[in-house]
Amino acid sequence: MDLNISNNLDKSAVFEQIAAALKKENFTVVQQDQTRPWGGFFVIDESQAGAFAAKFFPHLEMDAITITNKLSPKILVVAPHKRLSWQYHFRRAEIWEILSGVVGVKTSMTDEEGEIKELAPGTFIQMDKGERHRLIGLDSWGVVAEIWEHTDPENPSDEEDIVRLQDDFGR
């Protein structure tokens, strides 16, 4: 996906550019959220999860991560100098591919935040169920493809499956 996002763009222009790039790749956006204080996200139609995974995660064995019939494909957009909450999940692991911008990521198996790792476009990272993590915008807009590895086939993860340990926005 061709993304060359200027730091001078405001949030709505960044979202327009990403929406256009997703449309060009024939992905159907079923939800778009620009209201998050750290940026926002695009939810891709679940019926396109296989194509999404093939595009952004071609090195993964889908049989190994498809515990349920859902991968919950998303594009995360983090603004410069903003960060998502320090969080973890009970019913999912997360798999990310950095698409645009250098982003910071912190991970830890305990509640103590680890060091920031700077990840450039093309970098892949996988967080296990229960692994604490945080996505951080550095000096540019960060764009990240995400899929979920649902770990409980009887009770797939959803947006409520977030345990926030620290949040800059008081959520």
From TrEMBL:
It comes from the Bacteria. Keywords: Isomerase. Residues 57-167 form the Mannose-6-phosphate isomerase type II C-terminal domain. GO terms for biological process: polysaccharide metabolic process. Signal peptide: none annotated. GO terms for molecular function: isomerase activity; nucleotidyltransferase activity. InterPro entries: Man6P_isomerase-2_C, RmlC-like_jellyroll, RmlC_Cupin_sf. This is Phosphoheptose isomerase. It comes from Flavobacterium aquariorum. The lineage of its organism: Bacteria, Pseudomonadati, Bacteroidota, Flavobacteriia, Flavobacteriales.
